[in-house]
Amino acid sequence: MRIERVSNDQFTIFLTFDDLIERGFTKDDLWYDGSGVRKLFSDMMYEASSELGFELEGALLVQVHLMQAQGMHIIVTQKYEDVDFDDDFVEMKVTLDENKKLLFSFYDFEAIIGVTPYLDSMNITGGKIYYMDPYYYMLLSDMELNGANREDVIAVLSEYANPSIVTTYRLQEYGKLLFSSEAVKQIQALFHN
């Protein structure tokens, strides 16, 4: 679990699926085990509070983004409103949002060149490529998988890259777009023909 302070009233938590398993959860538990999820969030809030010296009080807005290959990205915002609750009470408004995109980070462009023949053989030709120092990123949407098994695509990409914890919003804002569409097809044409 990685925790980062964003501002005086906001912090983020990144929890991999391995972290969830260590805590006794599966991805399905997030959807169906309401009391277990509340306990998980409560534990994470107090761990983050302790680690960052972040005083939990009043209402919290908790946004959870499930990323297909990476895990959970949780954004916690403390709202300072005149709320008349017990000192021990924390309100959580939770929204679950599942990201339908795969985002992997590569240490060098050679690794992207290396993975494209395998993606091409799976009938995947799309994707975008970004550069944000010091990594290259490949972003694939669900539609760009063209019916390929998601787990197979993740397995192939994992041989050459790592699932990225960078949000797509941050990448689009700060990264340099190298291939805006059909990245796999273009790289195949440039380096493998």
Write the element-wise H/E pattern from the N-terminal end onward: EEHHHEEEEHEEHEHEH
Percent of residues in β-strands: 25-35%
Largest sheet: 5 strands, mixed
Order of strands in the sheet with most strands: 1-2-4-3-5
* Global outline: elongated
Query: Low-confidence stretches at least 5 residues in length (pLDDT < 50)?
Result: 82-91
Describe this structure in words.
By secondary structure, this protein is an alpha+beta fold. Helices cover 37% and strands 33% of the residues. The protein contains seven helices and ten strands. It has helices at residues 17-22, 27-32, 34-52, 109-121, 150-160, 168-174, 183-191, and strands at 2-7, 10-16, 59-67, 71-79, 91-99, 101-106, 128-132, 135-141, 162-163, 176-179. The strands form two sheets. The chain has a five-stranded mixed beta sheet. The chain has a five-stranded antiparallel beta sheet with strand order 9-6-8-7-10, sandwiched between helices. Strand 3 and strand 4 form a beta hairpin. Helix 4 (109-121) packs antiparallel against helix 5 (150-160) and helix 4 packs across helix 7 (183-191). The longest helix has 19 residues, at 34-52. It starts with a strand and ends with a helix. 23% of the residues are buried. Residues 82-91 have low confidence and may be disordered.
